[in-house]
Amino acid sequence: MHMDAFLPQLEKGNCPSPSQSTLALMELLQKDNAGLDEAAKLIRLDPILTAKIIKLVNSPLYRSTRPIVSLDDALMRIGLRIVVHMALGLNLINGKLPSAPEFNLTHFWSANLLRAISMQALATEIGNWPAGEVFIFGLLSEIGGLMIVCNAPEKSAALTNQGLGLAQQQAFEKNQLGFNRHELTAALMRQWHFPEIMIKAIEAQPQQPAPPLETGSHNPNDRLQLLVRILEAGRTITEWATSSTSDRSLEALQKKIQSWWVNTPHFASMIHQTLSEWAAVAEILDLPKSPPGQEKLESVRNALLSVRDQHQNESSVNKPLLLIDGQDTDRAILQRTLEPAGYQILQASSVDEAFTIIYKNTPRIILLDWAMPEIGGLLLCRRLRREFGLRLYIIILTAHYNQDDALEALEAGANDYLGKPIDRNFLLAKLLVAKKIVEFISSLESNCEQLIHQNHSLQSMAMKDALTGLANRRGADEFLKQHWPNALRHQSDLSCIMIDIDHFKKINDQYGHDQGDRVLAAVGKTILEISRIGDLTARVGGEEFMIICLQCNQENAASLAERLRQSVTKIVGTLPPVTISVGVSELNAAMANIEALLRAADQALLTAKRQGRNRVVCAPKIP
Known about the structure:
Blueprint: H1 3-6, H2 20-28, H3 36-43, H4 47-57, H5 71-78, H6 80-93, H7 105-126, H8 131-139, H9 143-151, H10 157-160, H11 166-177, H12 181-191, H13 196-203, H14 220-242, H15 250-259, H16 264-284, H17 294-312, E1 320-324, H18 328-338, E2 344-348, H19 351-361, E3 365-369, H20 377-388, E4 393-398, H21 403-411, E5 416-419, H22 424-462, H23 473-490, E6 494-501, H24 504-511, H25 513-530, E7 536-539, E8 544-550, H26 554-569, E9 580-586, H27 594-610, E10 616-618
Parallel strand pairs: 1-2, 1-3, 3-4, 4-5, 9-10
Antiparallel strand pairs: 6-8, 6-9, 7-8
Helix pairs in contact: 2-3, 2-6, 3-5, 4-5, 5-6, 6-8, 7-8, 7-14, 7-16, 9-12, 12-13, 13-14, 16-17, 24-25, 25-26
């Protein structure tokens, strides 16, 4: 099939698609005289979309220096193009797949969000690409795969088969359809008026090995290659985190890290940022509050924290110090003064160059000239303080030293103020104080991150069953509390599978409790293997288990339950024969609360036991 013949099918209602107001917004982007007022009127036609845009702009992704309270503020803050593409992404996420009910749409968008936040975090670390644009680009970078699923579900095995890698998936799609998901994504982005450089990044094949690249370069080809590498990094992290394949080792991922020119401290910071920002953004998009592969991502962060801490605890004289001065001669004088004292000197002559260096090299001490071209030293100082907070120690240098100017510099956010010409010993003494303060702040940051990690670990332990590794009853309750309102609001399918091991007391009495624990662990492992990624699997009692299936009706849940029942009977080894009884229910409008869903599954389970056990029974559907 040619892609030109496939694209019109996407408009027949089988796929999520942009609303009329969003289509009008994308057309508005093509006008040279497009006004923000006209865009705001179109967006306000959808109050829910308007509210979500304002929430997203206020999320950690965009790091606004002040709260955004109106749509006009949002448009002014991040620009018309990003807001339009944000509206497009929100439209598509809220869509349904009537032609592919078994496809796990929640997992698809969760993986896309993980990719988008990872790419945004990486863009923040290396600079030279607007992080807000990269987030929306990452969120929609696999949209072609979703369109293949909903319009050719019989040919989408490569997408739904978690065992296939990206190259295998593309080869399968090319063979079956004549094009792959990324070619379809590029075609859709052209229809939606995305920047051509983003479309080329989707179409490009990553270069192996990657050539050296100056991230501060404004050369179009360099910027394209930079975006290609950010996209490849996001895809690899997502594939690594969401894959159930056990041989996806941390060492393999670390080798990839080196090819992305990202040093260990930057990569640890990127993973930490991804994990910490997930919950706030996922809530806005009605996605699970924990990212897919959270434990694997946390293991990466933990493995890199010690390396990063070692990097931070090296002698302070090895850490870079940034000189920001428009005069080459002044920078050269300072460099000759400071390098013999052991300082690693970085230099910037402009605002853009300064921000690129800070994002890439993370210097903590800044020597900033008052008379900077373009915006002036004081205004740049305020921008640095807003963007990076108290992490930077800023010393303003000026040839016109007086008390009023010193007060003005301190009010602008400077830590200190020195007049030129600068006495060498006096400057070195000031820098010694700066290093001690920076080291103290770094130790506080490290301690806070470790406390946050320990808190997350304790929360995770409190939600898990120690024997099987599945969620416990508390974890199941929290999962249901999160997804119940969304399922009601969007009228999406939600099913519950209740499982009970048949005659478990006899197993304990006849074979002993140690063997009973092995049976529980084996059944729990089988449940985890059979269930879909994104569903909740839990042990909720002694021998009772539960699966909560998102975007899954009762018929599909019953099919999954039957596969599980058959798999449990095939558990081999030194264990006694094991069977299970299963009850299945689905959310319907007659259910007033979560307990009604669980009660219906429990009643179906009780019926299965009464009918002789080792069977699946569905709760009767209520009109």
